[in-house]
Amino acid sequence: MHCTRKIYDDLIWVGADDRRLACFEGVYGVPDGVSYNSYLLLDDKTVLFDTVDKAVFEVFFENVAYALGGRKLDYLVISHMEPDHAATIEGLILRHPEVRIICNAKEKAMLAQFFRTDYSDRIDLVKEGDVFSSGRHEFSFIMAPMVHWPEVMMTYDRTDKTLFTADAFGTFGALNGRLFSDETDFFGEHLSEARRYYTNIVGKYGPQVQAVLKKAAALEISTVCPLHGFVWRKDFAAYLEKYSLWSSYEPEEQSVMLAYASVYGHTENAANILAARLAERGVRVRMYDTSVTPASYIVSDAFRCSHLVFAATTYNAGVFVTMENLLHDLAAHNLQKRKVAVIENGSWAPMSGKVMRELIAPMKNMEYLGDNITLKSALTEDQLAALDALADAIAAEIGPKSVSGD
Ligand code: FEO
Domain 254-397, what fold? Predict the structure, then answer.
């Protein structure tokens, strides 16, 4: 049975939730599910904005048929060819053989790659600034390369001031019946998943996101329709501000992200003592065991916090694998502009500090807070002073500005 929601009288959400997906993109756990958004405009011509992942094709096609109300589908606008939005294009064409496709040249090439079919005779190519009219509505197209693939484009409805933003401004989490961000406590309940979505999916492409934000700043926007998560019709400026911080790699808060990798608990003990010393000084600490918490959550808080502490044991003459993976992930996501401290452990030949620094080296504008603190098997009484000194150094920079909260 169909399940749709109205945005305007002539714009209908026809997407679907997936709460059974174990890993988004095969990597990111989505315990709260995810939504695949698609929007149908009922103007003189009918226009569908993107399709959905194949996992939810059944309800999606029911939604489209219901929302069309017996009308034929005239156009499909493609924002992004990643299969979580494009996998059902072939099925859509089978069900609506009259549909014409509006897309850019890169999307056309990817259509042919994914479906091994030449759709040229039904494609109307568009490029930056081109205008398309469906009747009352007039649209222009804004290229958004690498947000999050090179072919991505946004569509701006000049008539109702709606911006279809592709992956940008999306979030993990099923909609659960709600559609608009103002139907939720977005900043209280959903910002952390929005941050995890942004930083892990698009975090690497900050400069490209900044370029699109600049273009969007010139537009009058009343409604934002992303391909995942909530539609925005209120308070969008506050969310935009978060995007501005994330994409410029500026921390959201003056706080510490402390990640540790510990085999028998001795490195963890040092991390716990440091966390306690920081808390005593009024510094907010967000702390993770890299062997327990999936990297995507730690990446997200690394983007959030101003100061990062990495503590890890030596393993195979290198650094423990879960810390190695995390640091690779942070470098791959282009994290930069942070203050960093390193604590290493090794019972006979401590190497993890050196290797952690090597893994941090590709990250731009990272500033170390002193030398590595080196444990030999376990922290000694004498080394408590080193942890105190590190806590003092961090507190001196951020203590008074540190935050409390979730
Ligand atoms: Fe939601 Fe880049 O796909």
Answer: Rossmann fold (3.40.50)
